[in-house]
Amino acid sequence: MLSKFIVKVGKNCVACGACENVCPREAIKVKNGIKSVVDINLCVGCGLCANICPAGIIERVERIKND
Ligand code: SF4
Ligand code: SF4
């Protein structure tokens, strides 16, 4: 079952990799050394990445159902 929450990455990611390192699901990755991208199919909305992000740009939001 999909989690109720996911996370979204805002602007000004500094590509530090902290979120990638803390994620227990390998759901968030720095792409091309520029910006983190979330795979919402893997994300369980635990918020660990949001807590550790030094830029404070990861937001926990409700997952919107598309079906
Ligand atoms: S909320 Fe949890 S599962 Fe989702 S990307 Fe962040 S650390 Fe990974
Ligand atoms: S922890 Fe924050 S600043 Fe660092 S890579 Fe992840 S989203 Fe970007």
Walkthrough of the structure:
- The mean pLDDT is 95.
- The protein is globular, with a radius of gyration of 11 Å.
- The chain has 67 residues and is an alpha+beta fold.
- It has helices at 18-22, 48-52, and strands spanning 5-9, 28-31, 35-38, 58-62.
- The protein is built from two helices and four strands; from the N terminus they run βαββαβ.
- The two termini are 14 Å apart.
- Helix content is 15%, strand content 27%.
- Strands 1-4 form a two-stranded antiparallel ribbon. Strands 2-3 form a two-stranded antiparallel sheet.
- One iron/sulfur cluster binds at residues 7, 22-23, 25, 27-28, 38, 43-49.
Overall strand count = 4
Lateral strand order in the biggest sheet: 1-4
Helix content: 10-25%
Structural class: alpha+beta
What gyration radius follows from the Cα positions, in whole Å? 11 Å
Number of helices: 2
Main sheet makeup: 2 strands, antiparallel
- Residue ranges: pLDDT <50 for 5 or more in a row? none
Q: How would you name the oligomeric state of the polypeptide chains in this document?
A: single chain
